[in-house]
Amino acid sequence: MEYKRLPLGIYQANCYIIWDGESRKAAVIDPGGDFEELKMFIENNGLNVEYIILTHGHGDHIGAVSEVKKYYNAQILIHEDDYEMLKKSEKNYSSQMGYKKVEIEADKKLNHGEIIRVGNVSLEVIHTPGHTRGSICIKCENKIFSGDTLFAGSIGRTDLEGGSFEQIIASINEKLLVFSDDTEVYPGHGPSTTIGTEKKYNPFLKV
Ligand SMILES: [Zn+2]
Ligand SMILES: [Zn+2]
């Protein structure tokens, strides 16, 4: 598995491109904007984008979804609990966040435990509600792409529609901190971290 982080869009949300080095098949996680920049990376590396995987439906993570879908004929995947959010710009906040409105239908609804195959690379869906009802993390080998659930030293906000502080803490404790300390974490904003570092230093997770 190979990957690249590209902070995109006006909120610089981390977009991650994940691919199988042999077949060059790829998945794009959270294309938040700046399609031209993303496209240039994809072309320069000869990748075939098969999937757009959304960690959740918020405007700062979906700004370039329509363009990626159209250009590469890629399938949009989102957890079933954020499926409706993607269809309405008032629900995904794309109209309020200073973007053009994003209103698009996903091709497939994801469920907890599902495996997405990109060539020889397997991506596992972990449902982690709390930031939104349908927030997910994607696990691949020893890496977790954590969306807006877990950040280095912080957690996602829970004051928006569908958010719950109790739920996000439970999601992180029960579904993320169960992995070994050396598991790498790649959040939707900011730098990467590890499960061990967050267990030890994240002020929201201290018991
Ligand atoms: Zn968000
Ligand atoms: Zn975000």
Produce the secondary structure layout:
Blueprint: E1 2-8, E2 13-19, E3 25-29, H1 35-44, E4 48-53, H2 65-72, E5 75-79, H3 83-87, H4 89-92, E6 108-110, E7 115-118, E8 121-127, E9 136-140, E10 143-147, E11 150-151, E12 154-155, H5 165-176, E13 184-187, E14 193-194, H6 195-201
Parallel strand pairs: 3-4, 4-5, 5-6, 10-13
Antiparallel strand pairs: 1-2, 2-3, 7-8, 8-9, 9-10, 11-12, 13-14
This protein binds zinc ion (ZN) (2 copies).
One zinc ion is lined by residues 56, 58, 131, 148.
What does the average pLDDT come to? 96
Q: How many E-type strands?
A: 14
Major β-sheet strand ordering? 1-2-3-4-5-6
Give the strand content: 25-35%
Oligomer classification: single chain
Structural class: alpha/beta
CATH architecture, please? 4-Layer Sandwich
Describe what this molecule looks like in 3D:
By secondary structure, this protein is an alpha/beta fold. It has one domain: Ribonuclease Z/Hydroxyacylglutathione hydrolase-like (Metallo-beta-lactamase, Chain A, 4-Layer Sandwich), CATH 3.60.15. 22% of the residues lie in helices and 31% in strands. It contains six helices and 14 strands. It has helices spanning 35-44, 65-72, 83-87, 89-92, 165-176, 195-201; strands at residues 2-8, 13-19, 25-29, 48-53, 75-79, 108-110, 115-118, 121-127, 136-140, 143-147, 150-151, 154-155, 184-187, 193-194. The strands form three sheets. Strands 1-2-3-4-5-6 form a six-stranded mixed beta sheet, with helices on one face. A six-stranded mixed beta sheet has the order 7-8-9-10-13-14. The protein has a two-stranded antiparallel ribbon with strand order 11-12. β4 (48-53), α2 and β5 form a beta-alpha-beta unit. It is globular. The mean pLDDT is 96.
